[in-house]
Design brief:
It is built from twelve helices and seven strands. It is an alpha/beta fold and about 290 residues long. It has one domain: Rossmann fold, CATH 3.40.50.150. Helix 3 runs antiparallel to helix 11, helix 7 packs across helix 9 and helix 11 runs antiparallel to helix 12. The longest helix is centred in the first third of the chain and has 23 residues. The protein is globular. InterPro entries: Erg6_SMT_methyltransf, Methyltransf_25, SAM-dependent_MTases_sf.
Length: about 290
């Protein structure tokens, strides 16, 4: 079993190694998102079997942005996410740039993937956000205490990597009273309900109750809990369709690239089945500091 500090290194290296593939599938940027999309009708607008890779990618990107807009509505972003915020587990910075551009937030984009920090800041500069989005390479459980107070912390499909009691305890020192912790995440609804999700992404999903108990112990109260499982299920259909379309159309792929894409295709199909089987729940939580 890996020690906690070694797990952090493994996850960081995993995302460093995936950078080029993330840009290919979700790019070109500057707002690149690595999370599911939100489909209000619970259906993909595409005939994904006949669509080109570029058309599928365009739909995925539109609905990933839609997920952030849906989150913004739930969380009242115009007044809760317009000040100083932490984007914890920021990926390539798409969400950080979104909060800065759309709501004027001053964002500290936290990543434990060393290679991602200059990419995030480079994309921010492209958007004219120099000084509004600052990358911080840090383990989420050891956020610097001298950077606060922050008005909110946001974690979009990243909190499953954290030691939740330790993370909330750390946040209790940097989030101002009345501030928010906003989480979009995959939650377990029954034992082994999220095994594919956990194994493919190296994450450790938990129940909403687990989150709530960890938050309460650190002085946070759950105030919003919204289920969006059915509205995110079509993401896996589109993600699998993009992978299949690339495999079918790109003759320049190396054998290693083809192998990785076939593994990804199997995983995406399995994740769609996992979503549909009811063992996982995609939810939006907001905790408020007392």
């Amino acid at each position: 079993m890996l020690e906690p500090q070694d797990e952090v290194k493994v996850v960081g290296q995993y995302y460093d190694d995936k950078t080029a593939r993330l840009v290919r599938k979700y790019g070109p940027g500057p707002r690149i998102h690595y999370h599911v999309g939100h489909y209000p009708s619970s259906k993909s607008p595409l005939d994904a079997h006949d669509a080109t890779p570029d058309a599928i990618r365009g739909s995925i990107r539109t609905h990933q942005e839609g997920l952030l807009r849906y989150a913004a509505k739930i969380w009242g972003a115009e007044h809760r996410l317009s000040g100083r915020i932490l984007d914890v587990g920021c990926g390539l910075g798409g969400g950080s740039i979104f909060w800065a551009q759309e709501y004027g937030a001053d964002v500290t984009a936290v990543t434990n993937a060393q290679e991602h920090a200059p990419i995030v800041e480079g994309f921010a500069r492209e958007c004219g956000l120099d000084g509004k989005v600052r990358a911080l390479v840090s383990d989420a459980m050891h956020l610097p205490l001298d950077g606060g107070p922050y008005d909110a912390a946001v974690a979009i499909e990243s909190s499953g990597y954290f030691n939740r009691p330790q993370w909330f305890e750390r946040l209790s020192h940097v989030i101002r009273p009345g501030g928010s912790v906003c989480i979009e995440e995959v939650f377990i609804t029954r034992p082994h309900g999220a095994d594919v999700w956990a194994e493919y992404f190296y994450t450790k999903p938990a129940t909403v109750r687990d989150y709530t108990e960890a938050a309460q112990a650190a002085g946070f109260e759950l105030v919003d809990d919204v289920d969006a499982t059915s509205e995110t299920l079509p993401f896996w259909e589109e993600s699998a369709a993009w992978t299949k379309a690339v495999l079918d159309s790109d003759d320049s792929l190396s054998p290693v690239d083809r192998r990785n894409l076939r593994i990804s295709l199997l995983a995406n199909e399995a994740l769609g089945a996992e979503w549909g089987a009811g063992g996982v729940r995609l939810g939006f939580l907001r905790f408020e500091k007392k």
